[in-house]
Write a structure and sequence with these properties.
homodimer, alpha+beta, 3-stranded antiparallel sheet, elongated, DNA-binding
Chain lengths: 102, 102
Amino acid sequence: MDNCCAPPSTELETGDVERFAAICKALAHPARLRIVLHLKRIDRCICGEIVTVLPLAQSTVSQHLKILKAAGLVKGSVEGPRTCYCLDGEVMTWFKQMANRL
Amino acid sequence: MDNCCAPPSTELETGDVERFAAICKALAHPARLRIVLHLKRIDRCICGEIVTVLPLAQSTVSQHLKILKAAGLVKGSVEGPRTCYCLDGEVMTWFKQMANRL
DNA sequence: ATCGTTTATCGTCGATTAACGATTAATTAA
DNA sequence: TTAATTAATCGTTAATCGACGATAAACGAT
């Protein structure tokens, strides 16, 4: 209505709102946040290692990883009997940019 | 363990993780995100106006505002029979800073 | 082919969330 | 004082979440 020529901070698209909310939802649990922070620190690791770090059952950790993956924050690649997880840098960056527009 | 002298991005405190997760939870609903965006645009407004903007019942909007207030993102001041809401800039800033550390 | 390791999925349970209408409380206007 | 306006709270309902143990699936090693 008035910021027709504002370059840095235009209004968020409708789809962006939904996606940002979905990512927030994935990050809204302390255990999942810790998983993300752990993956940031060590870059990549398998599910089993996360299980040793968190006070949660293996199935619960697997569930949290599934949620993070569904939100796009995390990528998983099967390597033999194990699965290696890492952050998706692009999605992380997108999230931060959106957060900065709030 | 190795970043003993890294100035910009030290590890998050335990309490910070909890708080960040709690704020994410508050932002994890599209309606609440829209409320935050609306408050950013118009700076401050009463509950009734938000009701006209969102396709939700008055009681539902009031609940969402309560959740945003509990998370610290929003402040409300009673002005006669109505309540005026606005964002808490400091909390918003804290959230963005934490997000940038992910 | 079988065993051990690792991870994902299933089923269950209690707790929490989201939404609504109805009601109550607070305040202004008539 | 009464009526109208505005917002918060209550009570209910269906749906979702979070956690777990048990089980199944995938794979490497023997």
